[in-house]
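Quick check before the chapter quiz. The format below is the same one you will see on the exam, so make sure you can read both the input and the output lines.
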Amino acid sequence: MSAPRGSASSAKPTVLVVGQTPPPFHGQAMMLQRLLDSQPASVQLHHVRLAYSRTLDDVGRFQLRKVLHLFKVILQVIWVRVRQRPRVLYYPPAGPHRIPMWRDIVFLVATRWMFAKTVFHMQASGISEVRRTLNPVTRWLFDRAYLYPDVLIRLSELTPEDGVGLRAQHEFVVPNCVEDEWDRFVRFRDPLADPARLLYLGTVCEQKGVLDLLAACRELRDRGIAFHLDVVGGFQPAAFEPLVRARVREWQLGEHIRFHGERTGDAKFEAFARAQVFCLPSYYPSEAFPCVLVEALSFGLPIVSTRWRGIPSLVEHGVEGFLVEIRDVTGLARSLGDLLSDPPLRVRMGQNGREKYLREYTTDRYAAMMDPVSYTH
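Here is the expected output.
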């Protein structure tokens, strides 16, 4: 549990932020860390850190250690509520997965009643869609935990309407942001490189479209299109890695693909800078507004992704890149082939993406939109 952030002025609204910060490194944890690091002048933040998952392989899995950690977190929240008296609970609910949902239910039923207001920040989307599938008893518990937040923050108008489904009193749309690392890494940029480097960066799991990307690469190879794919990220679950590597061997893609594992900090930014095309063919159930796509825009990379959740609000088809339907391997290969074989098109779409980032997804714009006074008064 971190020390309070911001000045100690009693006139400020006090907010208890409960959530995961890195490690492991993923979009939700990184955005929460950014909020804590911002030290807003208008509120005083206290933080209780969630640490259910120590590695990416732990995410979404039931473990006894996580149950014990849940009760430890509840006790920490009670302690902070008594000692620091925060009036607002800020919490990022889980997506539409049953194990994290039950974790949320236990935590929120045990703690929400202690706070005057609750703010849900939907870094993962779609939990409201689960409600209609629940039996009456579970639905009653779900309602006690999730319904009627004072404020709900969505990342895009295209994400599931959790504000409506959870009956939020107020809803705001605030897209994620990333730091601008362009100036430090622009020296690595070569948008006209031949063969072009295709980059996938993120959790390496089936629902992020990794197997579809490999199948598209096989089509590109068969069409004689030169490329190199860099896969950056940890496998989830760990058992997925042998399947992926077996598929690479089966399709004889070894000379075209390299797996780099998880990269953070400057090593990650260099991977973005050295690439010419970024691809994320996701159909991940709780996908909302992938931070990796914002990073790709900031580095001037044309993007190939899917018409899924909030992704189309980041990438306009034919402007910053191309969008395909989920699981459409042929469409994915066609769009990648168009970019890989047309350097001027890559440059033009990459410039469009960089300009969009500067207009909409900078940290300054995010800070202005996330003015905590709007959510706590």
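If your answer matched, good. The radius of gyration is 21 Å.
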